[in-house]
Write a structure and sequence with these properties.
The protein is an all-alpha fold and 64 residues long. It contains three helices and no strands. The relative contact order is 0.07.
Length: 64
């Protein structure tokens, strides 16, 4: 019986830890702040300078 209670308490602890927010509410979280896109002066999204995704090989891109 003691082992079962210990397992329930341990499971409850892990459930609370995984559900609880990692960042405080009004200050913002550095993990999510860095994911926001950069904005230009007009409020639009900044485009990256000359980076291509290179999803396809060069020869295939020319055919498209």
């Amino acid at each position: 019986m003691k082992n079962a209670n210990f397992v329930y308490v341990l499971a409850l602890f892990f459930a609370v830890v995984t559900i609880a927010p990692a960042c405080s509410k009004k200050s913002g979280c550095p993990a999510t702040e860095s994911l926001k896109p950069q904005m230009d002066k007009k409020g639009g999204f900044k485009k990256s300078k000359g980076s291509s995704s290179a999803l396809f090989p060069k020869k295939m891109r020319k055919k498209m």
